[in-house]
């Protein structure tokens, strides 16, 4: 955001203005302009992609799912979280568009940049007081094990009784501060991974139901990820102005 603010503020970083009706006659943006512009956008995209999915997760980690009182507070946290996001989008965007049209781009970018710096400072000050959960392995490794095991057991039948599927004891998840997930009917072919056979051992041939359900959750997110590519693309029309 700091780089984008400088980009719209410093004349040397702006592409030449064009007053021609035919944009093909306008002077093109230099290599420096393009490098700074796309560098700022990709830096912002990487930063946003790295923080947005983790902020809500950190918030959820502050509550103990095994404490009924804290579990209730956790649900309230996400309600207020989404409420604030929509209120911010409604009012903040309207105000910033007004500033953009009537004052200028510099102040329009300066406000969110300043706000971002304040929120980062608050986050860093509160870091010692947060609950920190140590990582317990890569989720991609678990997904790979589930998918490989499903391919290996492609011809295996799935029992109609879900109680016959392999699952760890509840105490095993409680020790790690995790919640056991019950089997779901969607992507049912992955349930083959939980079927015990004579040659299957926990790993690349056998996985508990919770690991399979976590993989299902990730796979169900793929259509949402693809659908959000276009609406979240940043317009670059101002480069030609």
TrEMBL record:
InterPro entries: MFS_trans_sf (IPR036259), POT_fam (IPR000109). The chain crosses the membrane at residues 28-47, 78-99, 111-130, 221-240. It is found in: Membrane. It is a multi-pass membrane protein. GO terms for cellular component: membrane. Gene3D superfamilies: MFS general substrate transporter like domains. Belongs to the major facilitator superfamily. Proton-dependent oligopeptide transporter (POT/PTR) (TC 2.A.17) family. This is Solute carrier family 15. It comes from Vigna unguiculata.
């Amino acid at each position: 955001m700091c780089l984008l603010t400088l980009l719209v503020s410093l004349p040397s970083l702006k592409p030449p203005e064009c007053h021609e009706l035919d944009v093909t006659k306008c002077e093109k943006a230099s290599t420096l302009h393009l490098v700074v512009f796309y560098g700022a956008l990709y830096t912002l995209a990487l930063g946003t992609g790295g923080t947005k999915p983790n902020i809500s997760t950190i918030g959820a980690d502050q509550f103990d799912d095994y404490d009924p009182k804290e579990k209730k507070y956790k649900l309230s946290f996400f309600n207020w979280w989404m409420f604030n996001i929509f209120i911010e989008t409604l009012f903040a965007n309207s105000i910033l568009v007004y500033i953009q049209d009537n004052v200028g781009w510099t102040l329009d970018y300066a406000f969110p940049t300043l706000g971002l710096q304040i929120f980062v400072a608050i986050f860093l000050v509160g870091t010692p007081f947060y609950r920190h959960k140590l990582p317990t392995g890569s989720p991609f490794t678990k997904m790979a094990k589930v998918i490989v095991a499903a391919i290996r057991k492609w011809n295996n039948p799935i029992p109609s009784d879900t109680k016959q599927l392999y699952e760890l004891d509840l105490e095993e998840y409680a020790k790690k501060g995790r919640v056991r997930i019950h089997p779901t009917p969607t992507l049912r072919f992955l349930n083959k991974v939980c079927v015990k056979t004579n040659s299957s051992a926990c790993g690349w041939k056998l996985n508990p139901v919770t690991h399979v359900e976590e993989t299902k959750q990730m796979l169900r997110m793929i259509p949402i990820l693809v659908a959000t590519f276009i609406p979240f693309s940043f317009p670059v029309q101002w480069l030609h102005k």
